[in-house]
Write a structure and sequence with these properties.
Length: about 260
């Protein structure tokens, strides 16, 4: 069997308080669409930030296991994390508009995202950026490249963040509540987009959501409850034969 992309048995606590994550155990395979579902404040973003090496060391203490490919993320030096983050592991944050710089054009966002990892190939940003816009189903003409975030809809802002997140062909893309800011029609379009990115780029996707229905596109879904995974399996199994009371509650909830 191919070796797992992510292996976790992770405990995290903030400033000596009771753990937010307690032995959170899961494996994500290469090229898998993996859903992590759980309640608000349940530690989903904490898990994403741990994978990105972005939990503030002064207040967050991590123990257990967390690996990505052959890297031990709990001991990985900052420099090595900076090489992975934004390239091999990328992140689409929760609030699209707030995550963009108001003064920068679409082109400038992509150029910056390119330069972080390819400083010596600074003139080469354009072709991969246009390819990423195309994959994210955004326009590629100059008039669009010149727009600033204020001129973008929420859906377009999110697609721009997705384009930035696929620029370096990541092995793992983490999408944190990607449907929360969108209406129902745009929700299903963005979920389809993640599925097509996985198919065309071979990127594994960790889809984080409080909505079990949104996770229905995933191959497997893990249910996070009180800091631990209480159940995981294909979404159809969780919908039709939920084993845990919290999963049962999720099957009926739709905001
Ligand atoms: N920087 C922090 N300092 C202290 N507590 C935090 C910090 N970040 C998150 N928390 C707490 O950790 C818990 C989990 O938060 P989070 O990972 O954001 O959950 P979710 O993404 O599932 O909504 C919450 O109770 C939150 O208040
Ligand atoms: Mg969150």
């Amino acid at each position: 069997m191919e070796s797992a992309l992510v292996r976790s048995c992770l405990t995290v606590n903030y400033s000596g308080k009771p753990p937010v994550l307690r032995d959170l155990t899961l494996e994500i395979q290469p090229n898998e669409l993996f859903g992590l579902v759980g309640e608000s404040g349940g530690g989903k973003s904490t898990f994403a930030l741990a994978l990105l090496g972005l939990l503030p060391p002064a207040i967050a203490s991590l123990s257990g296991t967390l690996t990505f490919q052959h890297h031990d993320l709990l001991t990985l030096p900052d420099r090595a994390f900076r090489r992975l983050r934004g390239r091999a592991i990328t992140y689409v944050p929760q609030s699209p508009i707030a995550s963009l710089s108001p003064r920068l054009s679409v082109a400038a966002h992509l150029r910056e995202a390119w330069l972080i990892h390819e400083p010596s190939n600074s003139s080469d940003w354009r072709q991969p950026s246009l390819a990423a816009l195309h994959s994210a189903q955004l326009p590629t003409e100059p008039a669009f490249l010149d727009l600033r975030p204020a001129a973008l809809s929420v859906g377009m802002a999110q697609r721009l963040l997705i384009a930035m997140a696929i620029l370096h062909k990541p092995a793992l893309l983490i999408a944190d509540e990607p449907t929360s800011a969108l209406d129902l029609i745009h929700q299903s379009a963005v979920l389809d987009l993640f599925r097509s990115l996985r198919d065309t780029l071979g990127t594994a996707v960790l889809l984080i959501t409080h909505d079990l229905h949104a996770a229905a596109i995933c191959h497997r879904v893990a249910v996070l409850y009180e800091g631990s995974i209480v159940e995981q399996g294909p979404p159809a199994q969780l919908f039709h034969h939920p084993a845990h009371p919290y999963t049962r509650a999720l099957t009926s909830a739709r905001r």
